[in-house]
Amino acid sequence: MAVTQSLPGSARAERDNRAARVSLYAVIFGAFVAGGGCVPAALFFPLTLRWMAVILLSGVTAIVAGHLARFRAKRHGLHGRRLALAGIVGGLAVLIDS
């Protein structure tokens, strides 16, 4: 796999770990939906099962992307190991909460 790197002249010239950010974004989205941030899913029963599926999918995505990010950080020397760990722990919290 190719490791992406920013342009040498840019402000972010260090190596980037995209999977760590995906993991954290999935946790934030799952917590937002689980907390009733968008539409109160309890109003409509058919939508409740769909929102539950979205919450579970975001939790699983956060855990898988977090493990992938930690592996890439260790193997390729990328940054974002702590961010990936936060994504894993947050993904577990989202799964337990739902």
Topology order in helix (H) and strand (E) letters:
HHH
Count of β-strands: 0
The stretches of 5 or more residues where confidence is low (pLDDT under 50) are none
Q: C-alpha Rg, in Å?
A: 16 Å
How much strand? Answer: under 5%
Question: How does the overall form come out from the CA principal axes?
Answer: elongated
Structural class of the secondary structure composition?
A: mainly alpha
The percent of residues in helical segments reads 55-70%
**Tally of separate helices:** 3
Q: Span between N and C termini?
A: 34 Å
Mean pLDDT: 80
Could you describe the 3D structure shown?
There is one protein chain. The chain is mainly alpha-helical and 98 residues long. It is built from three helices and no strands. Helix 1 runs antiparallel to helix 2 and helix 1 (18-34) runs parallel beside helix 3 (81-97). It starts with 17 loop residues before the first helix and ends with a helix. The model has no long low-confidence stretch (mean pLDDT 80).
Question: What's a concise summary of this model?
Answer:
The chain has 98 residues and is mainly alpha-helical. The protein has helices spanning 18-34, 45-76, 81-97.
Topology diagram in text:
Layout: H1 18-34, H2 45-76, H3 81-97
